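Form 7-S
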Amino acid sequence: MISALASRTREAEACALIDGRDTFDPYSASAAGVELKRLLWVRCGNIDQALRATDLVLHAGGFGLVALDLGDIAPELVDYVSPSVWFRFRSAVEHTPTILLVLEQDSHAKTSAALILRMERERGHWSKLVDANQGFTRAPQGCLYAGAYLQAEVVRSRAQPGPPMVCPMAVSVAS
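Output:
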């Protein structure tokens, strides 16, 4: 999500983030390349607020990317969202250049989604800190998170029907 927001804001697109549980960290996002002056951040406390805010933002128009982050909301709560909500969101962006990106723990949008990706983190990798003055490597608690290996699987795609594709990738943290 952060990568998509960074890409779109760098291209001078106005973007919106509907933050379902108010967990977005603007400092980390800025460090990852998100131009915050081009981002509308809607901080929500629950799923109902997030869905209402998404509906309003999509129907207002003018955004190149609208990200709905439900990743920190229990899948059991998202299960109760009516399929008509997902269809309403799809119809709001269907014939526009707006991209709606929904992050959730399980796929709930189902047939409304143009693309469903399942992403899993396989392992993280760490860099050791070396004390330049002493010439020795510090203990493991002195390690820095350097990135992770992810696996992305295309579960369903309207654009390219066919068997699911699995793509391993590495994601690194820029220093």
